[in-house]
Amino acid sequence: ESGAARTQRVAALPPPAAEGPVRRGRTERGEHALAGGGPGRRAAWGAVRLLAPVKQFAFAHSRNLVLERRLDDDAGLPQIEPPSGVVVRPYATGDEGGLAGLWPSFTERHGRSYLRRSLRKGVIVLVAAEEKRIVALDLLSPAGEEEVEIARGDACYGYWLAEAPAARGRGIGLSLLAYSLRFARERRFRTQLTWLAETDTVMLAAATQLLGFRSIGSARRLRVLGLTGWSWEVGGRRRRARRLVL
Questions:
Q1: In whole angstroms, what is the distance from residue 173 CA to residue 161 CA?
Q2: Is the pTM here over 0.90, yes or no?
Q3: How far is 146 from 76, CA to CA, in rounded Å?
Q4: What are phi and psi of 140, to 5 degrees?
Q5: pLDDT tens for residues 115-156?
Q6: Nearest to residue 175, comparing CAs of 124, 128, 123?
Q7: Which of 52, 34, 44, 23 has the alpha carbon at shortest distance from 166?
Q8: Are strands 244-245 and 148-149 parallel, antiparallel or unpaired?
């Protein structure tokens, strides 16, 4: 099955209705289910927190779709307004104080550290703010990041969308992604690139149906004992390297 066919298949899946905070990923759901229980559940949660990074270091594998959104599309870019009281804008000095609660507790330290490193590298950070609280953020880079290299001078790379668990299900992340497309076009980028796991059917549906992305290829990511490798096919060309080159 081709990457385009897989995208069309998952794009037909509607997002599920949200009831309360939306929990994503096994570790986040594990925290919600175990961390607030009795001693046995807290001990189980401690074991999960200890073993999850070890497992990711030892072995991780994912099948992904490479997506492209043309920014010079004559049909125009999507206008998806954020909910009342939420403002989408570039990251500003002083926003660090409003980051509490943006990430699940077990990833907050890593999230803050990664964000600071990205800002030092000159990565563009876009946020959704509700009063002084940052409820979502998204990164844009013309160069890529640790595992992705952007080789096209007219393209930027969108990645690392984060939504506060308590704010999910309100369309905030979607409005921020739509804003990132307009923001990138204003800076004269002609294309925004990204990749998504094939299993992330909700995000794939939103990207293709609502934001206008299309699949241009597929990529596999493999990590063994801390060493990551990519193999991909984009535009009919197959390649393999330590970093995904787009």
A1: 7
A2: no
A3: 31
A4: -130, 135
A5: 999 999 999 999 999 999 999 999 999 999 999 999 999 999
A6: 128
A7: 23
A8: parallel
